[in-house]
Amino acid sequence: MATTTATAAALSMKLLIDRKAQRVLFAEASKEVVDFLFSLLALPVATAVKLVGKDAMVGCVGNLYASVDKLDSTYVQAGAAKDALLSPTVLSPAATTNSSLLRLPETSSVQPTKTFYRCAQSSSYSNCRDYFTDAHGKACPYCGRSMTTVAKYLPSAAGSTGSAPVASQSAAEGFVQGIVTYTVQDDLTVTPMSAISSITLLNTFAVRDLGDLQEKTVQLGYNEGLAILKASLQSKTVLTDVFLHGKAASSPGGRATRARA
């Protein structure tokens, strides 16, 4: 599994475990945990391969990643960059906020400025003024002269710097509302939590003896985040695999308490 030196603030969630069946029924999770889980949807495939390790991937995607990584630059098109495939940009801000345990680089809200050019004869010929290009030196369709005069571009109000704080604030807030606690099932199905939904789940799992249930609070750090990402690509019992049967199950910080009837 890939490792990192980055330090992420640990999150926690409370598991409800069926001790007899040795499985996690569901977990009680905060907004921050759910933001992290949903952020996995925004990861490009290559980023997921890079994080969990190409040898740990199920199927052939890991082989594609390794092939690009090993491909000599002689066989790469001029102007093409291997990093565009191996380290693609994560477009969703929800995947790069501080709630992400994987500590991906934040998406820049500043867009690169493009320069436009007009014909040098546009002051003499009005028809030349109809044409603009982003290619310096392109021939003017009307007079044939080179288009080298820089045109002044006025951005729309939406693209002005005044909207940047709003975008940054939205990214910092993540994806889901923090007004409720969420239920995360073993297969990572996420729903808002309520007393009725919890009882319904217990009935769904055919729980007969509440004494067989155990609450356990677990910590989610970088390693657990990677384990969840990896298990989500391979399994339908992610929480059980990671926190009961996997390496993350022995991570320090777990606290077990007997469930109350």
From TrEMBL:
Pfam families in alphabetical order: DUF674
High-level lineage: Eukaryota, Viridiplantae, Streptophyta, Embryophyta, Tracheophyta
Domain of life: Eukaryota
Name of the featured protein: DUF674 domain-containing protein
PANTHER family registered for this protein in UniProt: DUF674 FAMILY PROTEIN, OS01G0153900 PROTEIN
